[in-house]
Amino acid sequence: MGLWTRMKRSVRALFGGIIEKTEDPELILQQTIRDMRDRVPELNNNVANVMATERLLAKSKERLETQRVDLDSKIRASVKMGRDDIATAYIGQLQQAEIDLQKTTQQLEYATIASKQALKARDNYVLQMQRRTAEAMQLINQSKQAKLQEQLAQTMESFQLGDDASTFNEMRDKIDRRAAAAEAKMQLGASNVDNQMQEIEREALDMQLADKLLDYKRDMGLLGAGSSATPQALPAEGETTTGQNGTGGGGRSM
What is the pTM of this model? Predict the structure, then answer.
């Protein structure tokens, strides 16, 4: 194989690969659809011209037929009047009109056939264009789906589940530690000295209110003779109360 042949093959392969990479199937199919649609007005114009020719030949045939009838009447009138010279002239015109009518009739037949064929070809082209358009749209949708699948595949290839899983585990441990610390602080806060002092102050306030209530009842004479005038303090935690006759001091009647 010669050097020049090898160089041409290499160049063709290089540019062929570049062109193939730059070709977008969607854009090419869309342009093909536009090209097919752009041809429809041209086909309609061609069909219109053929049909116009048919219409003109039909009118020419009609005019020649009318002329033939008119010449025949003039010939008969000339013969009747004895004007053979005029009749002969009209006969010459009639013969030419019949020749023209024959040619026009033949041309009209051809034009009628051509008009039907052109119209049929236009309809076939439109039908084929619609079919190809539907097929092209289906291919475009398939191309879009293929692109989407390629993007998903690339995303899945770059997606590393291990890194994200370790991140989730790390954040979960961090949140668990924070929640445990907050719960421990709440327990410590509930059992500290300030809370105990608040409970003692609340109990002392209850005792003061009870004493005030007894004072009101005493002033109003609602306390019986056996009722103690002064309420006894509540026993401290860990101590037990004795009966009225028990040792360790007189207890308040319950």
Answer: 0.45
